[in-house]
Amino acid sequence: MNAGLPAHIYVLVPFESRNLLPSLSALPSSARSTWRRLVHVRNRAERQLLVGTASWRPCASSEVDEAHWGKNLPFATRLDRVKGLPNLAECQRATDLFLKTQWLLERGGGIVFATGTPIANTIAESWTMARYLMRDKLEELGLHHFDAWAKLFADTVVTLEQTVTGAYRPTARFARFRNVPEWLQLFQIAADIRMGSELPELERLKPRLVGGDTPGKRIYRTATATPELLQFMERLAERVEHLGPPVKGADNMLKIASDARKAALDMRLVTPGAPEHPRSKLNLAADEIATVYQDTEHDRGIQLVFLDLGTPKAIDTVSTRDDEAAVIVDTRDS
């Protein structure tokens, strides 16, 4: 610890640092990798004592709009191999927000978080929001450490899940939560929740889903896997089996998953010159877009198409957006 720093800064960072002690003390001596990871997190937290406070302006309260951007607040846990956790990766932006909000609360200030999505992926994210807004209450109840919270409110379920290569393997996941009413009652000490049904004037402004077999429901179109795609997935499975230790520039799971997503969209993204299939995802999407356009042309409406794979680059072998546009033109002409 740096004795030259103001006393109040010790309240901020040691909070995360001392929360690591239960994890470290409970680990068996055989869990070396987990031990090293937790020690790294502790050292990182203690290094953050060097954060200066000269630029922090005194204020009575602060409001944070779209506060869900701060949900990736790092924390320590022994359950790092369980899926369904809040994001474990270090996020300096969230850490900065945490330090400043706690500094303000320690001085009797007020913090207001406003967001429409405080929980986006898992109910465990509500614990992260509680760390920002009611840290003292969590400490009082012994819930300031994530593992203590998870033991009381979450169950780990092991199920078979499909990997990017199409194989199945047992996966531990936070798929079931318990004591939810009790947690929500505690969470609402700091949270003022308003449902859409309580705000009819806003509900009326929402765009409504139309069309399909059941109006108001999402429409799904399924593309059957082609023989070329199935063969490519087998090659991806072989790549997974031959993965070695992480080496810069070598094959890794991220590359394999990316190739799997590209191949599922269109084989030409991974195999230049591959044949086009009339029932591919791109063609199914083009047919649907063209049909909607023709059916609503008299309304002069607008369609939004979200496509985040195969986007054009400076040098691109296959441009799916240009190709899809050409397919739609051909469909209309026919």
Summarize the structure.
This protein has two domains: 7-53 and 60-146, no CATH class; 227-333, no CATH class. The protein has twelve helices and four strands; from the N terminus they run H-H-E-H-E-H-H-H-E-E-H-H-H-H-H-H.
Write structural notes for this entry:
- With 334 residues, the protein is mainly alpha-helical.
- It has 2 domains: 7-53 and 60-146, no CATH class; 227-333, no CATH class.
- It has helices spanning 13-26, 32-47, 92-106, 125-133, 135-141, 146-153, 180-187, 200-203, 227-241, 253-265, 281-295, 320-333; strands spanning 61-65, 110-114, 154-162, 168-177.
- It has a two-stranded parallel ribbon. Strands 3-4 form a two-stranded antiparallel ribbon.
- α1 runs antiparallel to α2 (32-47), α9 (227-241) runs antiparallel to α10 (253-265) and α11 (281-295) packs across α12 (320-333).
- The longest helix is centred in the first third of the chain and has 16 residues, at 32-47.
- It is globular.
